[in-house]
Amino acid sequence: MGRVRIMVGVLSGALALGVSAWGQGEFQGQGQVISTVLPRHDGDPVPVVSAEGAKLKVNGKDVVVTKLAALTSAQDQLELVLVIDGSARSSLGRQFDDMTRFINGLPPNVRVGIGYMQNGQTVMASALSSDHAEVLRGLHLPSGSPGSNASPYFCLSDLAKHWPSNEPDARRAVLMVTDGVDGYNRRFDPEDLYVQSAIADAVRARLIVYSIYWRGQGLAENAQYENNAGQSLLQIVAEATGGKSFWQGNGNPVSFEPFLDELTRRFRNQYEVSFLMPFNGKPQVYSMKLKFDAPGSTVDSPQRVFVVRQGIQD
Fold it and tell me: Is the pLDDT of residue 201 over 80?
């Protein structure tokens, strides 16, 4: 199906209300996010959403949605980086068949790459490509050295700052395979500086972050409270960026297949949502809340958005 674009004119009256709510702004700011809209139950029809039925608040203020586009066309590009924790258990190799099937099943409009968390950086083992055989040459067992990632959130920030392409119109997604434990703050702390920095960096880079929980290893294996903390922090990052965190209890999943199948389904049911708002001209990350009038649906939208001056590409 061709790309569906539903344009909503920003009427002068609506804009006036927006300015009144926000206060006078010298410039217009623009923001763009990706939302996932799924039927609540398998087998149900895909919900129909519209810009008219969208309710958006940015920093607690009402904002008018100016564009809603269903990303269903073969021309809608998606870039995905699979990031594997360098300190993950070597038994992760049992999941390589599922990863291989997932990558081989990606459509031509998806470019995928593989990276490894090492010493606070994401080291790319394969470049973004739609050549699946070339990409899979980069898939190998992690080193398994406890703590060798430094922090998964350092690695996410590094990837956000050094995204391996310059395609301005492509969706950007990250799938992290990690236990989510910050080695510098092993307790659950929603305000963890490195977690919050990673979220801000990911939002600025327009990344949707997904994760699959995979427990650490060896004598440095995490205690249960640390595993719970890691899972909770991964969920915070996913929700802030509009993604999802996959896990099964405190143990490692038997198979990644159901998670990867759901991820594929999510990629097929996403919308690009754009808006304008009065703005002081300084690019920054705001809180946001987006709802659709779509009964029987599950909507995952980011909780943060990066706003820049209209007409400026960050």
Answer: yes
Comparing CA positions, the residue from 237, 248, 167 lying closest to residue 209 is 237
Helices and strands per DSSP (H, E), number in the chain: 7, 14
Q: Which two tokens stand for residue 148?
A: 């060798």
Helix (H) or strand (E) holding 304: strand 304-309
**The two structure tokens encoding residue 189:** 């702390």
CATH 3.40.50.410 in the chain is located at 78-267
In whole angstroms, how far apart are CA 104 and each of 100, 112, 130, 131, 133? Answer: 6, 10, 9, 9, 8
Cα–Cα distance between 241 and 244 in angstroms, integer? 9
Query: Which homologous superfamily does the CATH classification assign to the domain defined by 78-267?
Result: von Willebrand factor, type A domain (3.40.50.410)
Instruction: Record the pTM.
Output: 0.88
Neighbour tally for 37: CB within 10 Å: 20
Residue partners of 201: CB distance under 8 A and separation at least 6 = 156, 157, 160, 161
The residues with which 26 forms a beta bridge, in sequence order, are: none
CA separation, residue 227 to residues 67, 87, 151, 252 (Å)? 40, 14, 14, 11
What average pLDDT does the segment 117-126 reach?
Answer: 95
Residue 255 phi, psi (nearest 5): -145, 145
Lowest mean per-residue pLDDT among 60-69, 144-153, 204-213, 274-283: 144-153
The percentage of the chain sitting over the pLDDT mark of 90, rounded to a whole number, equals 67
- Band of the pLDDT at 217, cuts 50, 70, 90? low
